[in-house]
Amino acid sequence: MANVVVIGAGMGGMACAARLASKGHAVTVLEHNETWGGKLGVVSHDGHVFDTGPSLLTLPAVYRDLFLKTGGALEDSIELVDLETAFRYQFADGTVLKMPGVGIGRCAEAIGDALGGESALQWREFMRRAAKMWAVTRKPFLESELHGMKSLVSMSWRIGDLRTISPTKTLREMAQHYISDPRLLTLVDRYATYTGSDPRRAPAALATVPYVEQMFGAYHVSGGLRELGRALYQRAIDLGVTFEFSSTVENIATEPKVSGVTLVGGRFVSADIVVANADASLVYGSLISATAQQQTKPARTALAKSTPSLSGFSILVAANGKTPDFEHHNVFFPQNYDAEFESVFGYTSKAKPVADPTIYICSPSDSKMTPDGKESWFLLVNAPRHDAAGGMDWNQPGLKENYADQILQTLAARGVDVTNRITWQAASSPADLERNTMAPGGSIYGTSSNGMRSAFLRPENVTKIPNLYLVGGSSHPGGGLPLVGMSAEIVANHIGRA
Ligand SMILES: Cc1cc2nc3c(=O)[nH]c(=O)nc-3n(C[C@H](O)[C@H](O)[C@H](O)COP(=O)(O)OP(=O)(O)OC[C@H]3O[C@@H](n4cnc5c(N)ncnc54)[C@H](O)[C@@H]3O)c2cc1C
């Protein structure tokens, strides 16, 4: 049996802790915050409950496997809700597309109804290609350890696989090969943002994101997504995992070998193995010694070459009444989507808040979250990360409040004016996200998928320092609840049984 310390009680940290405890290890989770969950946050106000992080669970098989392997079925702990309409998309020309919850055929039909029969046929073809991509990438890329560019080279003899993935094409280029309607292209673009990326730079393989959503479903969790975290926390407790909150790790002892961590305040917690759920850039940048940094130079160099993922600006809105023709998930697209990516990533000038952003609103049709006759909105727009040293400084006085007003006005111009029904609202900027989750700059997904080599630049789960591991959205295979769950499985399998 090994003594394992996990740094951080995000979903990756808790999933790994539960898996390791079920393999017979003694596990302690040290968390900076007063509670578990990390980005999977919640805010409650006067009967309204708001998920402040994830609002959509895809690929539930990852969590089904985690729960089954650690003691009991996921559905015994939480209720997954399969929404009849997964998304209401409204394009700049006013066209509305209501996408069903699961089933590529049903989704193609809905696309046909909204955008015409040609688009339905094109979507089916695009999804057929995405299905092949999924078959080729799932096992070797997502569910396995990745070893930088070596992994790509070792795959290169499978010419057929490479052709399927089209590693030199972007998501935008791949979509344009199949799809002609600009509205449907806009919809595909949006899936790049699910990994915090720009569709004009992210690889074609991200076509698997809509495929997974439509093939395996997009779920709500009764009571809110935070309930998934609660169930996982309880599972870890049941398995004997110890949690210490308000415990910030400031150093990992790695010389002559991993022996534990030092907390802010000086207490040393000994460990044979350390699993870091903290952001990989923090681990490599400030939690290990200069000698260990030297030892991990290739990983740090790769990380420096990556583009950090985009961040998010959110507004929680409690409102009286009901918005007509509204669904659980609603997306309002702007006229010029490219301008959004220019603002967020700041290619030609300094990154700045998006003037006319895509607006996403989760308005849960869930009585545990929304009082009768009212609405509990989680509104999110893409935003540049917080960078007070020369980039976008989200701490400027008044900026948050003004930008929140601007977004609500933009929404009103797109047909939904909630302003005179609001009973309470609270905005959160990328700087707040950084403060609340310890994610540098408030990046939602660690590093983005911008660039053809991005997947191979992402930090590996097994570091060059024996017995030091990385788990969670800033390491392989990336961010989002399913991938974070996969990273926990990779790490737990590598460590093995006690
Ligand atoms: C606004 C928003 C919307 C999102 N929407 C979705 C969605 O709809 N669907 C989806 O699948 N995903 C979504 N995501 C992404 C998803 O939330 C994340 O990928 C996932 O929750 C990250 O989990 P993680 O394990 O990487 O840990 P994190 O949640 O990043 O947690 C890391 C934890 O480590 C702690 N920590 C860091 N450093 C230290 C230290 N030195 N000492 C002690 N503790 C430390 C932090 O306090 C934190 O609790 C969203 C995220 C955000 C922010």
Provide an overview of this structure.
This protein is an alpha/beta fold and 498 residues long. It has three domains: 3-40 and 224-306 and 450-495, FAD/NAD(P)-binding domain; 105-210, no CATH class; 307-442. It has helices spanning 11-22, 61-69, 104-115, 117-142, 148-155, 159-165, 171-178, 182-192, 208-216, 226-238, 280-287, 290-295, 297-305, 337-345, 399-413, 430-437, 454-457, 481-495; strands at residues 3-7, 26-30, 42-45, 48-51, 57-58, 80-82, 85-90, 96-100, 218-221, 242-244, 249-253, 260-263, 268-270, 273-276, 311-320, 329-332, 359-362, 374-383, 422-428, 468-470. The strands form five sheets. It has a seven-stranded mixed beta sheet with strand order 8-7-16-17-18-15-19. It has a five-stranded parallel beta sheet with strand order 10-2-1-14-20, covered by helices on one side. α1 runs parallel beside α10 and α4 (117-142) crosses α9 (208-216). The longest helix is centred in the first third of the chain and has 26 residues, at 117-142. The mean pLDDT is 96. Bound molecules: flavin-adenine dinucleotide. The site of flavin-adenine dinucleotide has 38 residues, from α1, β15, α16 and α18. Keywords: Carotenoid biosynthesis, Oxidoreductase. One of its GO terms (biological process) is carotenoid biosynthetic process. GO terms for molecular function: oxidoreductase activity.
